[in-house]
Q: What sequence folds into this?
């Protein structure tokens, strides 16, 4: 039995392409979970990272929290939260967000903190307000690194969002969980392939965003 | 309010620093009861070794550092009474390495302060383009990014950016320290030219005493602990250093450097030794000098030759000794003339006119007499002679 045969069989079965358990539906669900989790993590990680990076304060506390958060096993956390809160979307979001906040927070903090201090000094000396310095001087230069933090967070979310299936939700994890339960390895391999492809697409998406959003003066080409 | 040496065209403001002290929480005193009157529309240089508080003093003028005691007045008004951003926008700020915004084009870098002040994009960019020309930048660079420019060009952009909103005051913190000496000289000359046109009140910080003497209308020499050692025009600094510290800081050759402030126009020139390359045997024999300066038919210097080696009609111009750098009596100083004489194999400096034709030569001894009488005449010229 060859993995490629599994992949081929899974994707050429027309039954896999429609209905509530079809690839488009599962893919859409997976993307929805991922985007929601990334948005929530960014909503926490970006402002805190920008502010601490700009003031240069709280770096040690951040590093501690981030390390602690990284040590938490996502799956274990999910089971624990489901036992405490019951089934639903929220129990899935919590471990995904906890997983994604540290890379966003730490890279954003580092990105802003390590911006060359002399343009910042010049901006302050020219009478720019602190918020303007952060958003118009520091952020554009820190952007490539901030995007790389978001990118690693996004890829981790996409891979980990499969756990949603363990608590009766949809997404591409459904194929893996159901496939394992049904001993349908074609399904398992097909689901895993889709997750991997989605991760690569995410990577490409961030590359494109970087091309569009980062100034040629910062990209240096 | 008008200062004798100030530029009458300018828009600069008078800055009075009144017994200002900066003490940090750990007890370090960066500036100690400093009082300084900075004349408007001229360049005042703060110079001293590192840790003398010169940068702290500069940064207190735009409130990047707040003084612990004392007041700073801008045109008679306490700078504490103005909102800090308003104050800073009225002062151009130039720092070492320029501190350009790498994500913005050159044009948009220069347009920064006008944009902050709420100018429209078109107006701000038009102003920025005008400033590029003023600081000697090719406008073809407008769409480039800072990383595509050399260090000297970046520093010109920094100066243009500081001038963009036409502030009365320009604060410059070691702006030319990070570029090589040739580029630095170009930037210094450019600054003097711009100042001649604009007449800003410029406060300039440097650790380089030569730069201070070249640029400053007034020079404040500071020493460790934020004390003012001497505050004087550069010529006076060189002729009458206040104490051993200032004398030591000025370096071993302050006597030579002071000659920059005496014009060479009064030097008596002789032409007896100046011979054209097609001279006859009689012409060659006439001067009672061992060394002859040979010129071409146009009167431009070719080099020195010893008379016993020269044959009329067959002067080998390629075997003459180099005449060194000639001086222009109308615009050069005694320092340039002396340098020219010291470098000459004949011990004579070559004087030329603006077109490079020889007007005469002058010996080291004659220059020495001129130096003695200039010193006896007391003070060096207030108007600085280009050196």
A:
């Amino acid at each position: 039995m060859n993995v490629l045969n599994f992949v081929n069989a899974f994707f050429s079965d027309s039954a896999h392409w429609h209905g509530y358990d079809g690839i488009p539906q599962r893919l859409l669900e997976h993307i929805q979970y991922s985007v929601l989790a990334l948005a929530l993590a960014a909503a926490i990680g970006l402002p805190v990272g920008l502010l601490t990076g700009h003031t240069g304060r709280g770096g040690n506390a951040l590093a501690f929290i981030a390390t602690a958060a990284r040590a938490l096993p996502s799956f274990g956390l999910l089971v624990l939260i489901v036992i405490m809160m019951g089934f639903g979307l929220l129990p899935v979001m919590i471990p995904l967000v906890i997983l994604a906040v540290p890379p966003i927070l730490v890279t954003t903090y580092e990105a802003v903190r390590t911006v060359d201090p002399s343009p910042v000094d010049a901006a302050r000396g020219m009478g720019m307000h602190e918020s303007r310095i952060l958003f118009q001087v520091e952020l554009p230069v820190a952007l490539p690194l901030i995007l790389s933090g978001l990118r690693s967070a996004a890829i981790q979310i996409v891979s980990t969002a499969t756990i949603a299936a363990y608590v009766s939700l949809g997404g591409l994890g459904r194929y893996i969980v159901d496939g394992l339960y049904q001993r349908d390895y074609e399904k398992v391999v097909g689901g895993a392939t889709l997750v991997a492809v989605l991760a690569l697409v995410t990577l490409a998406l961030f590359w494109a965003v970087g091309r569009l959003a980062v100034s040629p003066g910062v990209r240096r080409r | 309010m008008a200062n004798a040496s100030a530029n009458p065209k300018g828009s600069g403001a008078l800055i009075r620093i009144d017994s200002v002290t900066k003490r940090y929480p750990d007890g370090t005193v960066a500036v100690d009861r400093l009082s300084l009157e900075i004349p408007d529309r001229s360049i005042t240089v703060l110079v001293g070794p590192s840790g003398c508080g010169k940068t702290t003093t500069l940064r207190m003028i735009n409130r990047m550092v707040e003084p612990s005691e004392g007041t700073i007045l801008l045109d008679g008004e306490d700078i504490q009474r103005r909102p800090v951003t308003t104050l800073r926008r009225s002062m151009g700020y130039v720092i070492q390495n320029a501190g350009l915004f790498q994500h913005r084009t050159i044009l948009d870098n220069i347009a920064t302060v006008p944009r902050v002040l709420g100018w429209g994009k078109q107006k701000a960019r038009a102003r920025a383009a005008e400033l590029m020309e003023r600081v000697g930048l090719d406008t073809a660079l407008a769409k480039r990014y800072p990383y595509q420019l050399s260090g000297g060009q970046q520093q010109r952009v920094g100066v243009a950016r500081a001038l963009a909103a036409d502030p009365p005051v320009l604060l410059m913190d070691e702006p030319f320290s990070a570029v090589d000496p040739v580029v630095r000289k170009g930037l210094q000359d450019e600054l003097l030219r711009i100042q001649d046109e604009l007449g800003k009140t410029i406060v300039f910080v440097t650790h380089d005493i030569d730069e201070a003497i070249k640029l400053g209308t007034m020079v404040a020499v500071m020493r460790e602990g934020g004390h003012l050692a001497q505050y004087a025009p550069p010529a006076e600094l060189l002729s009458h250093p206040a104490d051993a510290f200032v004398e030591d800081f000025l370096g071993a050759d302050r006597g030579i450097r002071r000659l920059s402030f005496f014009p060479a126009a009064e030097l008596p020139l002789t032409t007896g030794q100046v011979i054209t390359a097609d001279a006859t045997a009689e012409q060659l024999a006439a001067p009672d000098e061992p060394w002859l300066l040979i010129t071409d038919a146009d009167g431009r210097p070719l080099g020195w030759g010893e008379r016993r080696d020269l044959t009329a009609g067959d002067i080998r111009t390629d075997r003459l000794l180099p005449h060194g750098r000639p001086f222009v009596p109308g615009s050069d100083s005694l320092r340039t003339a002396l340098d020219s004489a010291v470098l000459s194999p004949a011990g004579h400096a070559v004087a030329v006119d603006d077109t490079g034709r020889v007007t005469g030569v002058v010996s080291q001894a004659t220059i020495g007499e001129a130096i003695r009488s200039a010193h006896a005449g007391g003070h060096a010229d207030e108007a600085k002679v280009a050196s």
